[in-house]
Amino acid sequence: MNILVINAGSSSLKYQLLNPETQEVLAKGLCERIGIDGKFTYKAPGKQTIDAVDVAMPTHSEAIKAVLDALVDPQNGVIASMKEIDAVGHRVVHGSETFACSVKIDERVMAALEECIPLAPLHNPANITGIKACEAVMGKDVPQVAVFDTAFHQTMPPVAYTYALPYEYYTEDKVRRYGFHGTSHKYVSQRAAALLGKPAASLKLISCHLGNGSSITAIDGGKSVDTSMGFTPLAGLPMGTRAGDLDAGILEYLMNKHNMDINEMLNVLNKKSGVLGISGVSSDFRDLEAAAKEGNTRAQLAIDVFEYNVRKLIGAYAAAMGGVDAIIFTAGVGENSPAMRLRMTAGLEFMGVKVDPEKNNCRGKEIDVSADGATVRTLVIPTNEELMIALDTAELAK
Ligand code: AMP
Description:
By secondary structure, the protein is of the alpha/beta class.
């Protein structure tokens, strides 16, 4: 079975063709500058790489067409015809309270997706465009499935998702914690259960997705019970460029003082804050580590603030669940920075967390890095959102 996984942005489209049964990635790549000029990238094992070549892409339909043309190309392709694509899985950012799991797309689902647009005005329209483009190019007979970033978190109880605002803002305006990165948290929690050899239903897990965007999720019995991102992905941990949680009173103070309107303020909070804002150096933790080593105190402070907040949330979620069996590190930082993993877990020995520095000295592989005597396991699990999307899609397309 071959599943085409699509992650459509407003001017870009990432794709991957994979076999969910063997987990083999047949080909992957990226369409960029859609609606501008169009650049196409294609990579497949044993085939010639196409790297950002010019392909006219006035709309997402031409982008999908370029993807299909490359996949079935007689010399450089990986399938003989489009018929070998059994289904298409789409990453959709926001499913509101309507979608608590992945869903096969039909007209009713499309209408519901349109209704979710006000909750994710930058992302959902692009996802919908990607779905429509696939249908236009591939026809109605190829099943399409929507996999939501928010769906995994729909199991959160009201106590975790309710903001202390007038209740009507929830009932009438849908303002509540939704949480994001759900596909990643779900995938790594399932892998953690496999790695520990225990059923997910018996485990309390804390999943730390730490990358350019970061979030932490408390997973009890296989279900998300709390997560750090909120109504939008701006909440929770300080991130590469996003502020994370802050006192809402700061907004009024800064907007008045610097004569900013709400869009300018949001631009600061989304693009100029986080570890970039604190350090003034970079949003990339590798640059920060290098600058801190050379004595840059603001870069060091940015790292310290990030790590402190991760540690604090791990403690909070252990308290929320009344215990924890394993802490999972995933995504760019979580998978690749042994030094940060060591520091983020330092001080958690009181709750049974103990990392073995030697086992921990690894990157990008699935491993239990706990030291002897640890009663809470520490796991490194590379995330694979595309595989999770393909698995859900295959299941629903059957
Ligand atoms: P992601 O959003 O999951 O792709 O993660 C991207 C981020 O991971 C980058 O911005 C880096 O800050 C971080 N990262 C990747 N590799 C390393 C590394 N070896 N050490 C520290 N941070 C890393």
